Amino acid sequence: MRELPRFGAGLWHFASYLDRYAVDGYGPPRTTLDAIELAGSVGELSVVDLNYPFTPGVGLDEVKDALARAGLSAIGITPEIYLRRWAKGAFTNPDAGARAAALDLMSEAADVVRELGADYVKIWPGQDGWDYPFQVNHHDVWKLAVDGIADLAGRHPDLRFAIEYKPREPRVKMLWDSAARTILGIQQTGRDNIGVLLDFGHSLYGGESPADAAQLLIDHGLLYGMDVNDNLRGWDDDLVVGTVHLTEIFEFFHTLRINDWNGVWQLDQFPFREDSVDAARTSIRFLKAVHRALDLLDVDALTEAQARQDAMAAQRLVQDALLQSMAGDR
Amino acid sequence: MRELPRFGAGLWHFASYLDRYAVDGYGPPRTTLDAIELAGSVGELSVVDLNYPFTPGVGLDEVKDALARAGLSAIGITPEIYLRRWAKGAFTNPDAGARAAALDLMSEAADVVRELGADYVKIWPGQDGWDYPFQVNHHDVWKLAVDGIADLAGRHPDLRFAIEYKPREPRVKMLWDSAARTILGIQQTGRDNIGVLLDFGHSLYGGESPADAAQLLIDHGLLYGMDVNDNLRGWDDDLVVGTVHLTEIFEFFHTLRINDWNGVWQLDQFPFREDSVDAARTSIRFLKAVHRALDLLDVDALTEAQARQDAMAAQRLVQDALLQSMAGDR
Amino acid sequence: MRELPRFGAGLWHFASYLDRYAVDGYGPPRTTLDAIELAGSVGELSVVDLNYPFTPGVGLDEVKDALARAGLSAIGITPEIYLRRWAKGAFTNPDAGARAAALDLMSEAADVVRELGADYVKIWPGQDGWDYPFQVNHHDVWKLAVDGIADLAGRHPDLRFAIEYKPREPRVKMLWDSAARTILGIQQTGRDNIGVLLDFGHSLYGGESPADAAQLLIDHGLLYGMDVNDNLRGWDDDLVVGTVHLTEIFEFFHTLRINDWNGVWQLDQFPFREDSVDAARTSIRFLKAVHRALDLLDVDALTEAQARQDAMAAQRLVQDALLQSMAGDR
Amino acid sequence: MRELPRFGAGLWHFASYLDRYAVDGYGPPRTTLDAIELAGSVGELSVVDLNYPFTPGVGLDEVKDALARAGLSAIGITPEIYLRRWAKGAFTNPDAGARAAALDLMSEAADVVRELGADYVKIWPGQDGWDYPFQVNHHDVWKLAVDGIADLAGRHPDLRFAIEYKPREPRVKMLWDSAARTILGIQQTGRDNIGVLLDFGHSLYGGESPADAAQLLIDHGLLYGMDVNDNLRGWDDDLVVGTVHLTEIFEFFHTLRINDWNGVWQLDQFPFREDSVDAARTSIRFLKAVHRALDLLDVDALTEAQARQDAMAAQRLVQDALLQSMAGDR
């Protein structure tokens, strides 16, 4: 069997959550250090993506020690440019002071990336967009978004910045909403250290084929990272991977393999009501099954079927690889 | 002009909000008393629907005094059966202790309804449902939902209980998800003191026509109350009413009028990033325009057009009324 | 292994298709007899649901002979009450003459059911609804729908009528749009010979859980029949079953099994661009795999997990049964 | 009042329709000449976009005469590269012969553009995409799409080619699915005579803000044309404009005006069950109201509100303009 990929997770997978209803939280608060320890206890993870700032009072050295104890390293740092201060946007906030504060926070995160030897600063501009028709001037707000990320990347030419696009939430509409729009914006920056983190679920509920989005990003040399989860195509449910869209997650990983994309298989999930370690282990268990299924897939026959765009033949090959219940049939 | 309706709002309209990203909240916390004062300052509201429990330390007498000072009365009480304790459900929680605790809280809320002379206990079982395929036995969980509300209503035969249905959120799927399903469940209870609070936005993004849902509920004698807002049909955005779906909100109120349904026009909105008083005033300003438009509508001609199912003729009548409704105001 | 179910298909699976773009059709026209012969050639089908009227010039005796030659029997007859004459509705057409003509056609179909010894008249009122806000009076149009089906069923007390609900298409909104609404309407008729044909895809893209909808219908004694296919949850794509939603189709069949529902597993698919026999064989091949997976599923452990609403444990059991790639892991 | 724009329509607005259910059509067939006469009878239209080929037996001279008699000119020609021959794609068909045939048809359409002095060849590759996961190799199929349009445009450097993007239908997924993806593809061609026809409804149900999409295309110099209609955001319903999304269509036209985009306001509607002339007149009547509303809008105040991203202030200004736009007309 092909060697297993490295597995990772957003550290928030091991946090506890709030939403607008359960304002007392789905569980007791956890510190950055608690979350690192839980991530380590999964026993399958090699890397984590850490939110920044850390829990108040937790220093960088403590984080380094905790990561070492947990056998983890940092793949990315995600500055929290979606907190109250940036409720109306980070790069596109109408208040110049808020925009400056966001850039400062992202530059601090850049320093942490250097300190921890991470691969990238993860930029998730979830508050950059609008809620209502007529709320913004679309030319001006997109210009703020593009100029802002260009400015940030220009300040840190030694680092890579990975934009995670998403159609919406928390804003009713996000500016960086799709693979194509994000590529377009990155091209407008003229920078070569800005790329994309593709979230399977964001792509799926945005109406993309995640496999197609991955191919498009790879063809533009911009697929810096990816993470997986699942949803019902109507919202970013951040369900555990493999619980709904088995065929499309398989197509996604098949696409990565045929392009020799060998990055980390990361989890971006919100197990609101589940034990987060159990959820992570269930996820990795499934991802290993997908990895085995990739070895079982008759790629030559699939290539021929795809050349004919023969969906039925392709599906039979996929089902042969994916379905154990097919075993008695072969 | 026909006399204006009474206007109301869910008191949460004047709270501040959290979500899974802006965990520090979209604004400073507000107490029940703060929210009542803000509601009063709108100057257009007659009634509010209050969450229960009140802010820790705030007593019922203080609430009564605050309501009196604000010139408001209570139309409903909404027990918060969607907090952490009930993350896996109130009526349908797998833990019998949690179910009992939910019933206790709802019975406390019933006492507050009596104390404040409100119209109903508002039941919003937002955590009653499931997130994953295969998570629940569908027969068992629906039975828990129906038996639970029947038990509650049976304990308080002197009061009315209004179920607010919604397709999803915070659960990936809610059990009480549509007007028809809710009517069906209420019929199964055999109780005559359970009805429905119809939320315009829930109906809209659930794929219903809110006007049709209102008619169905009225025809079953179950429309206990309603509230309005707006969204983009994909999620419960709780936007300010009249910002997106002008025609369908107009059809909704037209349907209420031709059925002589004369209840309160309530707001259920989450102005995350707006001033909540400004948002409420903007809403009422629009609702008054709708009320004028209803007077401008040629109902006889519309009735004839509908008898022919002549959509174009109906639309011209609607546009004539709606697209001049603001004129008288300037 | 549990004995295999009987398999069936809507005869239209073997027709050729038109849509509003490929107005010259996705293939050459096929007669009722052509389609029956193709259905027989699949080699796995026991029954078909036949559209009525048959192709002009094709008589009932020819159809009987063709079915006999193909080794098929009729499970249902579907009167085409969605052709031009009924573009504005069958039961709810504003023209009384069109409504009467629809009832006549459905009564002819009832005779064919008797002649062929089929199980039911399949009623699919796809044109009964509306396209625009304000187009119809919602009370009146629903009354026409309910009274119409009651009248039809009352004329043929010896037969069963199966309503196939669907959220929309070809109308922008269909009246019989969900399991709950359909049950409600059937209850209003007071008839005991009206039930439901549940289409997996209609339920899925309508925002239901098909497993939950099946359970609700079974609990009301109204699940007369079902058919399967797949889609992307946004439209009635009528894709081949098992190509997208493996887990949810598995939950659907699991729900039928635990309720001892032993009807025919029918296909309702539109293979616009595929060979229809190849598509049917690919479908049955997958359905047999699902049938085997049901035998592999640890139902006792699943029942325990569902009692705790433990989604992760339930998913692991489901994946163990469904995924061949998990075999190396067990 | 600002001078009225020129109004136009896709000639198919005046055709009759088929779909997969009403296979006998929603009305009697109409020839190209019938449709031109009907378009002329609307009395408000200046231009039409004509499908090509014309009805068999109808020659170019007859079309020229009919247009002259109807007082219409041609704005675009739309080759029907979505008929049976191209069920699996035009530019991306797996059969090289079908691809060549599509290019030939489009080149014939180019000649008709020259003959009629139209502005562009309208390219609507509705069959270019896929239906099933794993059906295509995403790199290869996108390359076929981009190389194909580049080849076509290269053969006719004297003409302009307007791609009309759409998320899906008739394919489950279309390749040219959004404004951003289309811009990206056009950039890959390196051609300067390929642009975009923006369809309001396609943009809306694709999850874009049509106003934002228009701005993005204008900023790239690629907005060759546009057409309007309406839908419920879940499908390309091609409803009559102004029947659902009043605010967003107003924002769309506001965006065109502030960018001094002064092209034709075209209708792309499918009045399946309506009189097509009545539907067109109802549309223009509404569009004139929108045009008045643009004059009523306090653009300076709106600009200030947008600089603050003050949604409530913006909405009040919009409602003031829109909700009195019909008043002057009565």
UniProtKB/TrEMBL annotation, chains A, B, C, D:
One Pfam family of this chain:
AP_endonuc_2
Give the UniProt keywords, A-Z: Carbohydrate metabolism, Cytoplasm, Isomerase, Manganese, Metal-binding
Q: Where in the cell is it found?
A: Cytoplasm
Highest taxon of the lineage? Bacteria
Give the main location: cytoplasm
One GO biological process term is: L-lyxose metabolic process
Residues annotated as domain Xylose isomerase-like TIM barrel: 60-289
Q: Which residues form a coiled coil?
A: none
What Gene Ontology terms describe what this protein does at the molecular function level? Answer: L-rhamnose isomerase activity; metal ion binding; xylose isomerase activity
Q: What is this protein called?
A: Xylose isomerase
**What species is given as this protein's source?**
Jiangella anatolica
